[in-house]
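To illustrate the input format used throughout this study, we show a single complete record. The first block contains the structure-token representation of the backbone; no residue identities are included at this stage. The design step must infer an amino acid for every position from geometry alone.
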């Protein structure tokens, strides 16, 4: 029996009057993941197009993959390099057991680095998806509306902007706040004006700042502290940063940071997919870029003792979360500006 036939066979049990009618949202979600919805617009003005909400959200989800896969490798590279510099080391908790089953700690091995990063990132993503998915299903069942693919985007973006060693219970708490307060209380996908992923991260940042900032949260090695590029600039200035890395190092992504934000190159690859698919607006990306250039140039002209004022625009592009925010956050299909003037 084919999958389509199986879904058609069990559908009556989930429709109104069926044994599992209250779980129709789950059936509909499974059906639309594999097949296009059978319903079409029947009234009012509409545009006939081959794309729908499912394709939009899945495309955004896939566009984050280059940053995700490279970020996992870089997380392992940073950790294995740190352990080599310390003369050895280990991860004492369950992460270490998981890593030891599949890889070693050689910073020159792509496999070792990738497995190390995956051991930290995949659990964060799984908890994000499961807990956030629970809230999505709960609100869909209570309200009697369908489960949208928008959570695919929310889940991966939230996981990508979280520190790699964030405790999993904090991950669950943050995504719960982001989904419930940032989206569902406004009516769900398409009605929220807040970005759920950013809302969740902001909540965890203000509730547990020690777990979201500082020098000890970016390189997942016990007893190791390492400052991000922005922290180095803030404390010692641009000259100190340039003794540690080149602009190209930062652009490629061999720097400490959240998994999704480190590689501007990987982010731009995902951004190119969004632009080609006409899902993201080039006007928004250009507007964000011009705004950053203008403001950073103004600060460069101000004589200040704050070393951040001397940071040139092209460094803003490759350190911190600017590039990720420009490509994936500012262009969010739901909460972004809709008019050309607003973009």
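Output of the design step:
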């Amino acid at each position: 029996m084919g999958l389509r036939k199986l879904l058609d066979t069990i559908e009556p049990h989930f429709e109104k009057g069926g044994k599992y009618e209250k779980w129709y949202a789950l059936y509909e979600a499974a059906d639309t993941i594999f097949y296009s919805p059978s319903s079409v617009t029947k009234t009012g003005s509409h545009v006939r197009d081959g794309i729908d909400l499912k394709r939009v959200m899945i495309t955004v989800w896939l566009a984050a993959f280059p940053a995700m896969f490279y970020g996992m490798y870089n997380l392992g590279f940073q950790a294995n390099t740190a352990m080599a510099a310390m003369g050895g080391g280990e991860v004492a908790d369950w992460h270490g057991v998981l890593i030891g089953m599949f890889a070693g700690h050689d910073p020159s091995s792509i496999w070792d680095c990738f497995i190390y990063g995956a051991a930290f990132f995949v659990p964060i993503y799984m908890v994000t998806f499961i807990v956030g998915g629970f809230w999505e299903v709960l609100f869909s069942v209570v309200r009697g509306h369908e489960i949208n693919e928008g959570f695919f985007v929310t889940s991966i973006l939230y996981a990508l902007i979280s520190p790699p060693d964030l405790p999993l219970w904090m991950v669950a708490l943050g995504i719960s706040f982001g989904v419930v307060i940032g989206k569902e209380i406004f009516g769900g996908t398409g009605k929220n004006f807040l970005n759920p992923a950013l809302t969740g991260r902001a909540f965890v940042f203000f509730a547990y700042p020690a777990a979201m900032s500082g020098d000890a949260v970016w390189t997942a090695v016990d007893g190791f502290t390492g400052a991000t590029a922005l922290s180095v600039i803030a404390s010692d200035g641009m000259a100190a940063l340039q003794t540690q890395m080149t602009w190209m190092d930062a652009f490629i992504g061999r720097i400490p940071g959240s998994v999704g934000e480190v590689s501007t190159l990987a982010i731009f690859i995902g951004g190119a997919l969004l632009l080609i698919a006409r899902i993201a607006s080039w006007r928004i990306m250009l507007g964000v870029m011009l705004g950053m250039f203008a403001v950073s140039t103004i600060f460069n002209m101000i004589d200040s003792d704050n070393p951040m004022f001397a940071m040139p625009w092209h460094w803003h592009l490759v350190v911190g979360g600017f590039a990720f925010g420009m490509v994936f956050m500012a262009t969010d299909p739901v909460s972004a500006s809709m008019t050309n003037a607003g973009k």
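Structural context for interpreting the output: The chain has a mean pLDDT of 84. The chain has two domains: 1-34, 60-329.
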